[in-house]
């Protein structure tokens, strides 16, 4: 079969590799000048930044497709800093670390939650994540057992689960954070997202020396070795039929590695009800900073929590009486790899991320808005004990509007459909159309994107 892949992100390249291995003739079309999609990179003054994902989880999923990929285990996975000044590192023996930091009762609560999370993960993996989604009904037909349903707790929220099972407010805050991994508000996100915490802590967090952008390099090399043709700088304006740079391209099937909303709304002949899927999903406000010197106590990944987490969610998602807006006192995520390959000697390269409302609800292009908020984020870090304002050699600001322009992600949303276990299916709404990537089944994050590519290859089958 002649198969066109639209988008050379991780999902598109992985699908191309698998489909070429099944004997198909595969051509990839990418609008950007380089491959990788949201797994972007930025270089300046001897620094190399990953501008997308910064953590690898579920390493066995990567080993299936890229056995040569070098991974380095991180410990801690994340250093959490709470408003009261306490610090908790996640990683191996997490319950023991909780006991040392917060006391025995907090550790016992976490162990009880952990047993619940393990059941949710096992059920989700068996019934949802590891199987293709042809339509929303296909998951419903999987034959869930009663213990599976009790563990997943349909109708319950992640916030509610934490309130029931964790007495320490800091652990509740930590659990809430995992909803943001799916672009969701923990007060509305399904309780089943506790599986994200389990996957990260059980399988560990990993880093690719030289930066996670090397995953895209490895996939491109695999694709080209398999005979895949990759065209960059090509604009696709329709997929049934496929139209690339104004030219109609004959195909037997199309795999779309673009945001599902963009596919349904812009690339298919008839827009559908999925056109507004992303409205309540998170975007991100990013600073890429070269920092002189070293910062004591900084881990690879760091989370600085606010005093009022709900105020942040109210700002970013909006309330019935107020539109979304930049959060005044946000959670700040800082990634600073200890890797000489990505920073000059005597410096640190900081990737700073703040949860943000998408461009569709906040106009990040208004002159001065981005720079003022960048100043605010650095002021927040300083108030939390990490003041680098006098050590910043340079900073680059990336807003949701920038990501929207670069990747066609509506509003610059990062995670696709917020917080849902059932995302748009891998089989598209038109004959011969299939979808891969973080906005479709089985979800966001690098391992889920790789699984989506496996699912599409299974649905299409051998040539």
Describe it for me?
The protein has 463 residues and is α/β, with parallel strands linked by helices. The chain has three domains: 2-39 and 210-277 and 424-460, 3-Layer(bba) Sandwich (FAD/NAD(P)-binding domain), CATH 3.50.50; 92-203, no CATH class; 283-407, Guanine Nucleotide Dissociation Inhibitor, domain 2. Helices cover 35% and strands 19% of the residues. The chain has 15 helices and 19 strands. The strands form five sheets. Strands 7-6-15-16-17-14-18 form a seven-stranded mixed beta sheet. The protein has a five-stranded parallel beta sheet with strand order 9-2-1-13-19, covered by helices on one side. A hairpin with a 2-residue loop joins strand 3 (41-44) and strand 4. The longest helix has 26 residues, at 104-129. The radius of gyration is 21 Å and the shape is globular. The model has no long low-confidence stretch (mean pLDDT 92).
Task: Please give a quick description of this structure.
The chain is built from 15 helices and 19 strands. The protein has 463 residues and is an alpha/beta fold.
* Total count of helical runs of at least 4 residues: 15
The CATH homology group name of the largest domain: FAD/NAD(P)-binding domain
- If you consult CATH, what is the topology of the largest domain? FAD/NAD(P)-binding domain
Give the termini distance in whole angstroms: 6 Å
How would a textbook summarize the main sheet? 7 strands, mixed
The domain count comes to 3
- Low-confidence stretches are none
**Number of E-state strands:** 19
Radius of gyration: 21 Å
**Oligomer classification:** single chain
The helix fraction, in percent, is 25-40%
Arrangement of strands in the largest sheet: 7-6-15-16-17-14-18
- CATH architecture descriptor of the largest domain: 3-Layer(bba) Sandwich
Mean pLDDT: 92
- Beta-strand residue fraction: 15-25%
CATH class of the largest domain: Alpha Beta
What overall geometry do the principal axes of the alpha carbons give? globular
User: What structural category arises from helix and sheet content?
Assistant: alpha/beta
């Amino acid at each position: 079969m002649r198969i066109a892949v639209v988008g050379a992100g991780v999902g598109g390249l992985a699908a191309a590799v698998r489909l070429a291995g099944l004997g198909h003739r595969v051509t990839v079309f990418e609008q950007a000048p380089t491959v990788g999609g949201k797994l972007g990179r930025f270089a300046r003054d001897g620094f190399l930044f990953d501008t997308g994902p910064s953590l690898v989880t579920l390493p066995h999923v990567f080993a299936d497709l890229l056995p040569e990929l070098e991974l380095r285990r991180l410990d801690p996975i994340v250093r959490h800093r709470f408003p009261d000044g306490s610090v908790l590192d996640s990683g191996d023996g997490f319950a023991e670390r909780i006991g040392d930091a917060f006391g025995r009762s907090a550790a016992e609560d976490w162990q009880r939650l952990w047993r619940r999370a393990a059941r949710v993960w096992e059920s989700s993996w068996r019934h949802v994540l590891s199987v293709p989604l042809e339509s929303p009904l296909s998951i419903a037909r999987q034959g869930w057992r009663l213990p599976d349903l009790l563990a997943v707790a349909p109708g319950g929220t992640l916030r509610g689960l934490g309130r029931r099972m964790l007495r320490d407010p800091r652990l509740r805050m930590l659990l809430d954070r995992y909803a943001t991994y799916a672009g969701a508000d923990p007060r509305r996100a399904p309780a089943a997202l506790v599986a994200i915490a389990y996957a990260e802590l059980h399988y560990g967090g990993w880093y690719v020396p030289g930066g996670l952008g090397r995953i895209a390099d490895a996939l491109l090399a695999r694709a080209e070795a398999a005979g895949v043709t990759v065209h960059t700088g090509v604009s696709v304006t329709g997929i049934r039929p496929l139209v690339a740079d104004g030219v109609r391209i004959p195909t037997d099937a199309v795999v779309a590695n673009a945001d599902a909303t963009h596919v349904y709304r812009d690339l298919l002949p008839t827009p559908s009800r999925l056109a507004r899927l992303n409205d309540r999903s998170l975007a991100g406000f990013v600073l890429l900073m070269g920092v002189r010197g070293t910062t004591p106590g900084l881990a690879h990944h760091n989370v600085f929590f606010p005093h009022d987490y709900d105020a942040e969610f109210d700002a970013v998602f909006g309330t019935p009486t107020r539109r979304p807006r930049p959060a005044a006192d946000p959670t700040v995520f800082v990634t600073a790899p200890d890797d000489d390959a990505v920073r000059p000697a005597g410096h640190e390269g900081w990737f700073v991320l703040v949860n943000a409302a998408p461009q569709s609800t906040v106009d990040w292009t208004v002159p001065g808005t981005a720079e003022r908020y960048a100043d605010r984020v650095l002021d927040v870090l300083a108030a939390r004990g990490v003041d680098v304002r006098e050590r910043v050699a340079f900073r680059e600001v990336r807003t949701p509007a920038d990501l929207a322009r670069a990747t066609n992600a509506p509003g610059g949303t990062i995670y696709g459909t917020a917080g849902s276990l059932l995302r748009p299916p891998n089989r598209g709404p038109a004959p011969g159309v299939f979808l891969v990537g973080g906005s479709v089944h089985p979800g966001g994050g690098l391992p889920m994107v790789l699984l989506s590519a496996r699912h599409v290859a299974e649905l299409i089958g051998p040539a």
